[in-house]
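Curious: why these numbers?
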Amino acid sequence: MESVPISERAKNVKDLDLSFNELPIERALGIEWCAESDTFHFSPVVKEHTSTRRGILSAVASVFDPLGFLAPFVLRGKRILQEMCKKGTEWDDPLPDDLRPKWESWLSELRELDELQIRRCFKPDSFGTVKKIELHHFSDASLTGYGQSSYLRLVDCKDNIHCSLVMGKSRVAPLKPVTIPRLELQAALVSVQVSNFLNKELDYETIENFFWTDSKIVLDYLNNDARRFHIFVANRIQRIKESSQPEQWRYISTKENPADHASRGLGVNDMIHSNWFKGPTFLWDKEFPAPSHTSRDIPADDPELKSTRTLATTQQTFSSMIERIERFSNWNRAITAVAVLYRYIAKKRNQESATPGEAKQKATMAIVKWTQQEVFVEEIHALKKPTLEGKETKIVKRNSHLLPLSPYLDDKQILRVGGRLDRSPMPDHVKHPVILPRRSHVTTLIIKWCHEQVAHQGRGMTVNKIRSSGFWIVSCSSAVESFIYKCVQCRKFRGKANTQRMADLPKDRLEPSPPFTYCGMDCFGPFIVKERRSEVKRYGIIFTCLSLRAIHTEILEEMTTDAFLNCLRIFIAIRGPVRHIRCDRGSNFVGAKNELQVGLQSMDEGKIKDELSRRQCDFIFNSPHASHMGGVWERQIKSVRSVLAGILDQSGTRLNTSAIARSCTKPW
């Protein structure tokens, strides 16, 4: 204490006499620590919690136990809270009657925690020099929960043994039903996680870890490598094996397993008198039992095993290398695969491996040679025939379509174009390109590669790319044109738009009839006009004869049903009876015609039909969103608006309702 400055000392120990006064009780990590006895204490403050879900959660959470010394006791409180959640109890609903005795019993035992004392130091005072340190981890699971407990076993130089609880964990089982083997496996995983934590935190050089479980199924899972499990089991087995070895796992009977308390729960008094704090009795013996469980083969009907299928497969055989090349859909990948094959052969023969560029060039010529040997059999045979002295140079048969190319075989037995360019300074592969057939998978791959190199340009640029790359395809233009015709991107970039065939004209457009017997109608506008001292909106309504294309226009003061009926009465009074009137529904107006659209939608269609039926007139609406069906009147609106545009440009400032009315009465 003298080494600690007075300003740094706690208030309750500044005037403390260590020889006579009792040492105070401090709090460490939320747990009370008595410096006098060097033990941990638990003194939870029991408040008057209401018997609701909110109050029970507060009471259970008030027991701060980071090392899990009270894990079996806290598990009982967690189970009560889980039962309330399962029943659908709200946060402030009262506790169900069947759970009230369990809660009152747990709450009364909470006050008994004052009697519990746990030594802080793992090593007793009279213990000798430690020569062996072991960590024993026990795991168990039940239908209501699962947990684990870890014990530190010390052996001194006189073979004295001491065991103490280091850490414990307890968790309630999930609400979704889970099998016991899966819960046991989850508990084993928690043991491994605690082991990793303790090995990192405990300040010991060497610690030997042992894992104990009373589940033989878990031991079989960990010792089996021949079976495939479902994802839940497979993932946990993998995580367990990452931090432990199967040889470290041992079997323990349920009666001796202290982790059984963490999975089922205990009261405070039962927990004090159980083996929870000291561990099983065999840990105190000089030699604890050797592994007694023998790994068994997992039965085929185990629900955690994945179902296996045995499929009869046959190895595909190829009669030639060209058939293998046909498995490729890209020219670069094909020559790369052949180049890798050549480099592998050179490595096996202890030959000097060629560079990647040289290997690809060799692979290209090999693929071309295989293709020529498949197609140009007679031509190659004719060019290989020995010639007599004094005879002409080797030529192919006169009926061969390669005759105009003056073909010849080079030193690598590859068929090339002859021609008269021997003295040209151009590269050899340009002067004498290799010959390829019109229809071949290799030819298609080369055309595709060259077409992509010129960025999907036309036939001419693709053909030039093929020629400059050292290939001469028989009937090259037609082959390239056929490929471009099937190219999806070229069809997308330069394809012609299809035209839709128009439907037949309706009968009322073709039948001779008096003017306006069959007509179409639509509205246009609005126009801003003066009404005394204010500016108002006015609309125009057009009636056009479907057979004569005559036009009648009226002014529409507002987009209402009554205003439209007034215009309709005027139109019928002037033009005579009407048999059919066709019209849009108004939903085809967009953009600048939004106001017109809202107005048309607000009209009472039923009231309009009643008025027309009284006058023996059918009111026919077009289909919704089908403005193309009203092309007759839409075209006439364009003519009317073009005329009005000139008039309004000259006298737009003096435009009023009377001027519009006079304009509408004039014939167009």
Q: What stands out?
A: The chain has a mean pLDDT of 83. Residues 22-118 form one domain. Residues 180-201 form the longest helix (22 residues).
